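Ligand-bound model needed. leucine.
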Amino acid sequence: MRGQGEICLADEFILETEGLTKEFAGFFAVRDVALKVRRGSIHALIGPNGAGKTTCFNLLTKFLKPSAGKILYKGQDITAMAPADVARMGLVRSFQISAVFPHLTALENVRVALQRQHGSSFDFWRSKSVLNRFNDRARELLNDVGLSEFANTPAVEMPYGRKRALEIATTLALDPEMMLLDEPMAGMGHEDIDKIAALIKRISAKYTILMVEHNLSVVANLSDIITVLTRGQVLAQGHYSELTKDERVKEAYLGAGHA
Amino acid sequence: MTTLTDDTLRATPRAMRDEMIVFVVMALLLAAVPFTGVYPFFVMQALCFALLACAFNLLIGYGGLLSFGHAMFLGTAGYCSAHALKVWGLPPELGILVGVAAAFALSIVTGYISIRRQGIYFSMITLALSQLLYFIYLQAPFTHGEDGIQGIPQGHMFGVLDLSKPTVLYYVVLAGFLAGFLLIFRIINSPFGEVLKSIRENEQRAISLGYRTDQYKFLAFVLSGTLAGFAGSLKVFVAQNASLTDVHWSMSGEVVLMTLVGGLGTIFGPVVGAFVIIAMQQYLASFGQWVTVIQGSIFVICVLTFRRGVIGEIAHYFRRSL
Amino acid sequence: MQALYAQLLVGLINGSFYALLSLGLAVIFGMLNIINFAHGALYMMGAFVAYFLLNLGGINYWWALLLAPIIVGIFGMILERTMLQWLTGLDHLYGLLLTFGIALIVQGVFQNYFGSSGLPYAIPDQLKGGMNLGFMFLPIYRGWVVVFSLVVCLATWFLIEKTQLGAYLRAATENPTLVRAFGINVPRMITLTYGLGVGLAALAGVLSAPINQVRPLMGADLIIVVFAVVVIGGMGSIMGSIITGFALGVIEGLTKYFYPEASNTVVFVLMVLVLLVKPTGLTGRAA
Amino acid sequence: MPDTAIAEAPARTATGGNILQVRNLEAWYGESHILHGINFDVNAGEVVTLLGRNGAGKTTTLKSIMGIIGKRTGSVKFNNQEIIRATSDRIARMGIAFCPEERGIFASLDVRENLMLPPVVREGGLPLEQIFDLFPNLKERLNSQGTKLSGGEQQMLAIARILRTGASFLMLDEPTEGLAPVIIQQIGHTIARLKKEGFTILLVEQNFRFASTVADRYYIVEHGKVIDGFANSELSANMNKLHTYLGV
Amino acid sequence: QDKTVKIGVLTDNSGLYSDLGGAGSTLAAQMAIEDSGLAAKGWKIDLISADHQNKPDIATTIARQWIDVEKVDIFMDVLNSGVALAVNNVVKEKNSILIDTGAATSDLTNAQCSPNTIHWVYDTYMLANSTGQALVKAGGDSWFFLTADYAFGAALERDTAAVVQKAGGKVLGSVKHPLNSSDFSSFLLQAQASKAKIVGLANAGGDTTNSIKQAAEFGIVAGGQKLAGLLLFITDVHSLGLNVAQGLNFTETFYWDLNDGTRAFSKRFSERMKNKAMPSMVQAGVYSGLVHYFKALEAMGGNPHDGAKAVEKMKSMPTDDPLFGQGSIRVDGRKIHPAYLFEVKKPSESKGPWDYYKLVGTVPADQAFRPLSESVCPLVKK
Ligand SMILES: Nc1ncnc2c1ncn2[C@@H]1O[C@H](COP(=O)(O)OP(=O)(O)OP(=O)(O)O)[C@@H](O)[C@H]1O
Ligand SMILES: Nc1ncnc2c1ncn2[C@@H]1O[C@H](COP(=O)(O)OP(=O)(O)OP(=O)(O)O)[C@@H](O)[C@H]1O
Ligand SMILES: CC(C)C[C@H](N)C(=O)O
Ligand SMILES: [Mg+2]
Ligand SMILES: [Mg+2]
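Prediction:
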């Protein structure tokens, strides 16, 4: 399937990188990566531990500064932007280690995200009851990720898997165009995995998703296209079925067990 | 860094109602002071510090930013108001305005420098800035160095309120305090306040949600600094002097103490804390040399036994947010 | 020009006190996460213990150099055991407040019994007198202070950064529960570490007794500057505070030469500049 | 800080004897009561897996055994010694090692120091070469700061460092989380080998597929209680149950 | 007539200056009350004391409260110039009384003089005048100043420099050091390099003792330069020890071993002090001031509770007490008495504890203080 991108129109790709490189004191965590993410697709980024997946995410969302290379988002060069501004353009991430506002309730967690978009977040002279108008939408989002009963629970008291779900709900609240999910299923129970997988599938109709995941069944079921990274470089790209046949991928990532 | 506040208590609509009730009770009690025989100057002074502590609390308790240089706003506003009143002969309301404006300007400058720093480094850069300012005030002629500006005229506010009458002064100060307090209360419970709290909780996450967190922290810093300045301007009328004490680092430390003793991140805590500390300074003064020992013991006991502060402990006991 | 050399040398001498004190503070902060406001009071106690040893027990300076840090260190460990240990896991602020309270109590008690103007402590005979260096008259005692504190600083640095014990300490700072679950008696280790930091303060106190008066408030005036040193060096960084300590002494020396009024302030100017350029101090790790 | 009063270790090769006995274990986080009476046994040389939904109390069980939960009651016997009151450093020195869920890599230590951190409690730990064979990534990154490692590398480090100590009873909390399939396979092999060498392993896993390749027995935890348990040989007969309990 | 009196001792109880005022001042006041014998004549005299922590704002708050709530009639001690000026304002506004025995600034009786205030013991003008002149006369004709960087230090330096120049000496330079420094080596090196014959210490308390001590260490005195402590108290000498302090010249208006009267008082005082210290001139001033105040009250037959009126009365009566001898209070509020130039004894000359000074000169009362002709005090009619 490589090369398909070249035939298509440039704006089919919502995100493109050229020669993206990140060096930590002589160690290349990401090296010369050219990534093209098609609008509306679920694109998986897989690879062995330490391959540079999270680093890639950090570069894309500007939490790290690239050593070299260029990032285009919706055709615009965002290489030099600040992280918050990238988020405002609709490119939003979740974290590998779960990131919630621990002492806010689930509802409030989601509301914080809703509030950003709808302004009024600098209004220090107004009562916060103006935020109540977000409650319905927030409940809806919590419901989507199966957290209805946790609406009034502080995030810190929620089980791990639920925190991941909450994080996704919060991210969705921003109504992003593209979501970067870093191991969204890590540490979840089976039921939750299925729920979240279904959720991702559902929302992918509206959003573009780039995700890192080690759970192969999830990757297999969800992703339209997969890029395999090793040692900071792209090793292969293609559909799951193709990649499982690729000896290099097997050796580097999947292991012998995967036929 | 663990959070300092008791976060098992969250603002729910019921909590807001509780807080309003307590506020009204507090306002009534304070309004009754002149009829009780309690010495009004003591209360006025405590009110000024209470406002300062509340402003400080806005930054630490809700923004997670521990400023170790809040005295600089108090002192700057104090000096500027004092100078305006005494040398330029401005009426009280304009004197206050001058002081508050100075604190506002100062908080913009210092906020711009310090806000990008995290945790303990933020504290330290605010401390360093306030020490620089201390040095400037020590050297600048208009502050009269160690002697301070003394004998400041109180004047007539709006041309009618004679501030040299203790009762009139008392109500003016009380009104100022209540206004400042309500503003802070509102800020905490505003959309802005919500964002601030979430930044305190997890700044990285807030950034990833698209918040330019520096701007929010900056606004919180400026609001806090300006309100602290307002406290400083009011204090000029009460103390009728402006001195280096108000810009010294130990004053910044005292504010931290007041807030902690009362209860960090509680709305009424700083007020109670300010009253406790000021009362301690006043009434322990007659214990002679043992003052510092007694004061020290109180801090030790506070930290070891009721760390949430007076109000924090009460709130925790009743499982209410106060 | 000669005067300038002299100022630099004198600066270095003061720097050794900053270095020793901030070193102890950095050890305590780095390992226990406590901002030890009582450091100044403990430094003062070191000097007083030396004074008592001499005047009540007839024990000379050299023994005091060994005994005072041990005695004050034990006092510190008692403090840690009875009070500070209850604060593990809480915000810095509580430790700061508690130690501030302790400092007030200790200073208050000493002031009650010994007044505030201070007691004399003589320079030991072996170190009396001075050398003419050409550009200045260097009291031998001051030269001794520089050399001795340099040695102590480097030894401490080695202990903490280069030994397994140091690794335990650093790890325990971050996650004491887990380190304990690896089989290390963390509470005891922490107590000993606090004792070490406090002992360093007391050592500085003994060193300074012959130079400064033995005064109850001798530490109170110093503590805030020493804090600044620790911050500039990068909170908790051992080497950072040693280098900054000595460097600050020299810079102060220069300031005293060119603009003496600002000599108490220059450290804060430095702090603002350093924090603006390097947000976590010269060698610090993220807060 | 050597603590000499250490209980005599079980002979590493002796399998079969009951090594850990948990009875009526209850535990609290502050006010909230999490474990409501956990009962189970582990025999020497076994791999036992705790399964259960998110929040069932698996991690809490391990932590309670390790002595790092503030309030706990009941009985935990290790080699017939009661350890419910013991402090965690004593427990560790009796030969129990713990690899926490959140990994617990130290930011202020480099990878080498992290690896060397846990003190050796007795002879017989894996030598460094073997550890590097298992986790080649670590060898490469030895001088990086601990928390600069990628998520998976941190997980490797967390496992690696307790293999060194010679503790013969390992508690691993979701060791495969965030690891690439190749590495998971390797860990599977490692566990098998450790078992052969006489280690006893108490495992908490969400990844049932992985657990089924290594475990001898399973216990199911729900709402702070062990509600069921069976051996690997009875697995197929119990698939239904597993489905209702865990949705596998 | 009302015969109740309340005395407030407002002092530094915990800080830098607590040895020379502090608890000793309170004791001195207590002794004055006991010695007055007024209780037997039906007077009821109360005494309270407080710590102003050297902070003008704390002091004014306490002062207001004392006047408004505690009904304090008279403030004693109030050392520290900044505090004194602030309290001076309050006392004037509320028509109370201040007898200041500790603050140095001569402004209290000059630009800031008040009908409610008496400055009892010493001031910067007098120190400069007496010590400065004496040293120049003794051949110390070139000076270098070490000055505490605040109003008090600056005033002391300015006044001393003027005296030195008037007497034909030269000022070669000066260096300002921050208040409460612990290290003076750099400043001393500069003083050394200046080659001035006299190094004038325009500072007080710990600053002075530390500079003296370190001067010895750096061989300043051994190198032939002489130190002049412009404001030194006996407690400072005590803490320095005679070894270091010997040979210093300075001015005080009271010394315990001056005559029978001072010795008798000081012995009684010292016995009641916790650390057996002899009284400083500040503490002695508290006693002396109160003695005179009580005389005025008796003369008025009761307490008018009117500060200006009582001060008026005090000014009209000559003063006489065993500690400061005979004297008077000028219209500007300046208490007039002789000043004594002392030199610190060598250890070999000292006969016992607290035997520290030998008298080397006396400035007569009429020459010791700023002449009224130079005064800008509005109370002085010209
Ligand atoms: N700040 C940093 N400094 C030095 N090295 C780093 C830093 N961040 C990451 N690395 C290194 O870069 C490599 C890539 O890390 P990254 O976190 O991107 O891996 P990953 O693909 O996300 O792996 P995993 O699946 O385990 O999460 C790793 O070897 C890691 O040690
Ligand atoms: N620090 C804590 N304070 C309060 N409650 C907690 C804390 N940690 C965990 N809990 C609660 O204890 C319960 C059991 O948690 P535990 O971590 O043992 O679950 P688990 O079975 O390990 O789940 P997972 O598979 O998600 O790791 C959960 O309901 C959780 O919310
Ligand atoms: C020594 C002190 C009692 C005088 C003080 N330095 C003052 O400012 O007046
Ligand atoms: Mg990763
Ligand atoms: Mg768990």
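The CA atoms of residues 20 and 322 of chain B lie 9 Å apart.
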